[in-house]
Design brief:
By secondary structure, the protein is α+β, with helices and mostly antiparallel strands. The protein has a single domain, classed as 3-Layer(bba) Sandwich (Glucose Oxidase, domain 1). The protein is 15% helix and 17% strand.
């Protein structure tokens, strides 16, 4: 119902899409996107942080369960847990589970493949069959190249093409900088100027963002994730990245962007119900402009719904003065447009720290993977 209302509202506005897929900066036939920036150089700049004897692991992903918040853009995930069974003639006993319904790659903490999003030459009016044959993907791939039939997996740009992501990371605290200690508001955006201001405030102005970095932005919206999800609040709206910031991080060749919000894109109160306009600055006909830019144009990987960044006591560990470390790996599930995965942070042990010292020398490890069955209590 949410998707139908949003589609009808945009079609009624007569929004025409004039933006086409931009030419990727890599050679024709590329399927890696910004992962082309990765390699020995990014690995080497991680070594010092990974070898720190004071390093400690922190959880970054949400616990997956049947009662967690569920995205309105994916089929709700439902797991069934089987009784303990055995094998006749042996002393073995074992447990198992099955996915009854849902999209593991669209729910909870997950990552979008580049092939998750494409673009049409003009806005669909919602009438008749969806013109999928007109879709164009990252690098100029056509629908016939990527998904030739309705029931086929992705033949190009699927999640299995994502290489291990081992690189440096920058963590920016938008909750403190923009929210003044409170979570950012629904529809509120992090602009390119905000990113530069946070880099300066956190002592990273001279370093900035460099090719191959992971960029993590803590908005505070992740504090609204509740399980069981009785209030149905988390997915109803949220802050996000501004369109000019998406262009900015593409110029910097950031390999992966992650926020603790529902959609990465900003969603104002009422937008999903067709009662509020698209974000300011978004190209016409592209209300989810961050998804479009990252996936269909620039090839920036797109995890969603990161939990609160590493916590110690009452503090939130964000990075000051030093870069962090990011590492990503996942199973090679062929042809899927997204994948559930778990992310953890490796940081200097922050217990006992107070004040500004708490936010120094943080090293973060991004571990992206299909974790087998979703984690449950």
């Amino acid at each position: 119902m949410i998707i139908l209302r949003l589609t009808c509202a945009l079609a009624a506005a007569g929004a025409l899409m004039t933006t086409s897929v931009a030419q990727a900066p890599w050679p024709p036939g590329d399927e890696l996107g910004m992962a082309n920036t990765l390699g020995p150089t990014t690995w080497q700049r991680c070594a010092t942080y990974l070898a720190d004897p004071r390093a400690k692991s922190y959880e970054l992903s949400h616990l997956r369960s049947n009662t967690m918040p569920q995205s309105p853009f994916g089929v709700p995930l439902r797991e069934k847990y089987r009784p303990t069974v055995g094998i006749a003639g042996t002393r073995h006993a074992f447990n198992g589970e099955e996915t009854v319904s849902g999209e593991p790659g669209a729910q909870g903490t997950q990552m979008d493949a580049i092939g998750h999003f494409a673009v049409l030459p003009e806005a669909w009016d919602g009438k008749g069959d969806f013109p999928a044959d007109k879709a164009r993907y990252y690098g100029g791939y056509t629908q016939a190249d990527v998904k030739p039939t309705a029931d086929s997996p992705l033949q190009k740009l699927g999640i299995e093409k994502v290489p291990p992501i081992i690189t440096s990371a920058v963590l920016l605290d938008a909750k403190s900088h923009l929210g003044r200690g409170s979570a950012m508001q629904p529809g509120q955006v992090v602009t390119a100027a905000d990113i530069e201001a946070m880099l300066k405030a956190q002592g990273l102005e001279n370093r900035g963002l460099i090719p191959g970095d992971v960029l993590y932005i803590y908005t505070g919206w992740g504090d609204n994730w509740k399980d069981p999800d009785t209030e149905k609040f988390y997915y109803s709206k949220g802050p996000g990245l501004a369109y000019d910031a998406a262009r900015y991080i593409a110029e910097k060749k950031v390999v992966l962007l992650a926020l603790d919000n529902p959609f990465t894109d900003p969603v104002a109160e009422g937008f999903l119900q067709g009662k509020a306009p698209p974000p300011a600055g978004a190209p016409e006909g592209l209300p989810f402009a961050i998804h479009h830019t990252n996936l269909a144009e620039t090839g920036i990987y797109h995890p969603e719904r990161q939990s609160r960044i590493a916590r110690s006591g009452q503090g939130v560990a964000v990075m000051h003065h030093h870069p962090a470390v990011a590492s990503a790996g996942k199973c090679r599930l062929a042809g899927t447009p997204g994948l559930d995965r778990r992310a953890r942070a490796i940081a200097r042990d922050l217990s006992g720290m107070r004040g500004a010292s708490r936010t120094r020398d943080v090293a973060v490890v991004y571990a992206l993977r299909a974790a087998g069955p979703p984690r449950r209590p």
